[in-house]
Amino acid sequence: MTATDDLTVTFAALADPTRRAILSRLVDGEATVNQLAEPFALTQQAVSKHLKVLEQAGLVSRTRTGQSRPCRLERDRFDAAADWIDRHRQVWQDRYDRLDEHLTDLRDDDQESGT
């Protein structure tokens, strides 16, 4: 999978509010599917489907501790998405700054010519 495809999968996974809530919970530490399902009015199967999407995106992994398979956050994938956003934010900020400067120049020219 290319870097762009990884980002597509990452952003698609992040598009769902339930998946974002699951990720927010995992920021506090590992959790089982039962623990992750507690705050939602969802079945464990539904939560498991969300976790599968998050695992495929590389945002979550599961480990094995005895009978338990806790989920944990994979922060590296977030870094790639944040890097992409930061690069594009800078491009748009530069464009906005140039537009703002151009509009200021036009306004100054209008004031000098009295129009």
UniProtKB/TrEMBL annotation:
It comes from the Bacteria. The keyword DNA-binding applies. Transmembrane segments: none annotated. Gene3D superfamilies: Winged helix-like DNA-binding domain superfamily/Winged helix DNA-binding domain. Residues 1-93 form the HTH arsR-type domain. GO terms for molecular function: DNA binding; DNA-binding transcription factor activity. InterPro entries: ArsR-like_HTH, HTH_ArsR_DNA-bd_dom, WH-like_DNA-bd_sf, WH_DNA-bd_sf. Keywords: DNA-binding. This is DNA-binding transcriptional ArsR family regulator.
